[in-house]
Specification:
The protein has 3 helices and 5 strands, in the order E-E-H-H-H-E-E-E. By secondary structure, the chain is α+β, with helices and mostly antiparallel strands. The termini are close together. Strands 2-1-5-4-3 form a 5-stranded antiparallel sheet. Strand 4 and strand 5 form a beta hairpin. It is about 30% helix and about 30% strand.
Length: about 110
């Protein structure tokens, strides 16, 4: 599974070896540092709560995939626009205070 994060035209990819045992602290450290390099504070977006929900939506196939992902899209999350993209990709997009788009995409492991 991969997490793709983008701010404007800059992007970061984070590989998740086991979606059922994610080191969220490490993932968040990478994402926060990415934002810091671009002089953007991401802490107010609550992505530390969004990302686990997105991972469960994509990796939670035993609950009726892609129903879990689609359920999260229907439920929504904060100021993010959520969408399910065919193939199992879950996307969350919002606009930062500086007007740049910020997105988080969860890509399932394609075998």
């Amino acid at each position: 599974m991969d997490i793709g994060v983008s701010i404007g035209k800059e992007s970061l990819d984070v590989n998740i070896l086991n979606p059922h045992k994610v080191d969220l602290d490490k993932v968040m450290k990478n994402i926060v540092e990415f934002g810091s390099r671009l002089e953007i504070d991401l802490t107010g977006l609550k992505i530390e709560k969004l990302i686990p929900k997105m991972i469960r939506g994509v990796a939670g196939c035993e609950g009726g995939c892609p129903a879990d992902a689609k359920g999260l899209v229907r439920q929504g999350f904060g100021g993010f626009s959520l969408s399910y993209i065919e193939g199992g990709i879950l996307s969350a997009v919002c606009t930062l205070d500086n007007g740049q788009p910020f997105s988080v995409n969860i890509f399932p492991e394609f075998n």
